[in-house]
Amino acid sequence: MAAALGVVASHPALAMTSQPYGRLADGQVVSRYELTNSHGLKVEFIDYGAIVTAIVTPDRRGQLANIVLGLPSLDAFQRYNGTYHFGGVVGRFANRQVERSVVLDGKTYQVPPEDSPNAVNGTPDGFDRRIWKVAPKEAAGGEAAVLTLKSPDGDQGFPGNLTVHVTYTLTDRNEFRIDYEASTDAPTVVNLTSHCYFNLGGNGSGSTDRDLVRIEADSIMPSDAQGMPTGSVRPVKGTPFDLHRLTAIGPRLRGADPQLVAAKGFDMNYVIDRSNATAGAPVAAAMLHDPESGRTLRVATTQPDLRFYTGNRLDGSVVGSSGGIYRQGDGIALEAEHLPDASNKPSFFSTELRPGQNYKATTIYRFEVDKYRPE
């Protein structure tokens, strides 16, 4: 790990450094960490929520910029991440669960929030609002850190003491790799993801409408008027959701399809094509390209599903780390995960985890850039 943030803690072998980022009301100190590679890429994260606060990459002119949406302070993350989940690791169960319930071995468990008919992203007290333990890790061809969280039995209504390890690795291949692992002492369900919002033009550069997207999926899961999964799967062929080819986002998200109208843009789960995949190996899931900056993001994952969300609920009420406000469409989330409500759908990939089993998932974000093109 790099030492660019000012050394207040260190690991002699790996030169891991951290800097105080803020303090919670109970006195706990929150720290910020930094990963760098030989090409000048940088990933910054904090131990509160395992939140990725910055990913710094060059554009085609060599100008560096942070390409994820962030917030200016710990107080801001505490205030807004119960709603927007900026950059955090979401759990125990990412995305939505219908009627706030999970059935395991014939027993029904109710999950929060009590004032809502459905559960979403661990709200109001998900993993992106907890302090994680951070330790350095040796990584060939890169820098890495392991973040650990222990979730007690009954946490968010779920059974079992769950131990979670998330490894952040920045490689010299310009890949930011996230490896998830979890184990339990009682039958439970788990579904983890990272909720980064990307803007390849740079944080604070405005709308992502000009970006081009491709998603390797033949079907989506539709949602109802409340954004909850219907449980059915819809082929994308011949619909606005067919993104097999690089497609400009702006014209598509203003389409008349009821799903787009209800969500005010893209906010749906794509079932990733894993027909030619090796078991347990990441497959290409998505590509995002900004023609103006020349930056490209490629996503590969072992997960069966990708939530494509165009920041539709950003309403101008949140001031970002760049000092500007975040408006609708200013960031794009590509959340590799299991399908929403999968814990209650036997036909979906199982999210059950039992004692003696290990939950494992990997998502890789690869950063590329076009060569300089003169004006």
UniProtKB/TrEMBL annotation:
GO cellular component, one term: cytoplasm
Residue positions of the active site: H195, E335
Keywords linked to the UniProt accession: Carbohydrate metabolism, Isomerase
Source superkingdom: Bacteria
Binding site residues for beta-D-galactose: N95, R96, H195, C196, Y197, D267
CDD domains, per the entry: galactose_mutarotase_like
Reaction catalyzed: alpha-D-glucose = beta-D-glucose
Catalytic EC class: isomerase
Family matches, as NCBIfam families: PRK11055.1 (NF008277)
Annotated family: Belongs to the aldose epimerase family.
Protein name, per record: Aldose 1-epimerase
